[in-house]
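Hey, can you fold this one?
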Amino acid sequence: MQIGALDSLPPPMLVAVIGTVTWAIVAIVLGLPIVRSWMRRLEQRSNPAMPTDVSARLARIEAAVDSIALEVERISENQRFLTKLQTERVPLSAGDNPATRQR
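Sure. Predicted structure:
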């Protein structure tokens, strides 16, 4: 063996690191599509189609919630109006009778 031939070889640790990085890249490039398709298959299996009666029920519930929200908004608007009327009202003095007061 010649001494000059050993000097031209890269260090063994560098060869190991380059090999490891290369195999990691190959594993990611080839493995990622496989893992994606496997996960897609698992998701499709775990999410069964919703029956039509359930979707009709959910639509009715949604309509009921919308109508309740509308009624609550009307109640709150009425409450704001009544509060405004009460704050604008002239307070009675100590001896006034509300029944005989002019409007």
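Helices lie at 3-7, 12-46, 52-88. Let me know if you want another pass with a different chain boundary.
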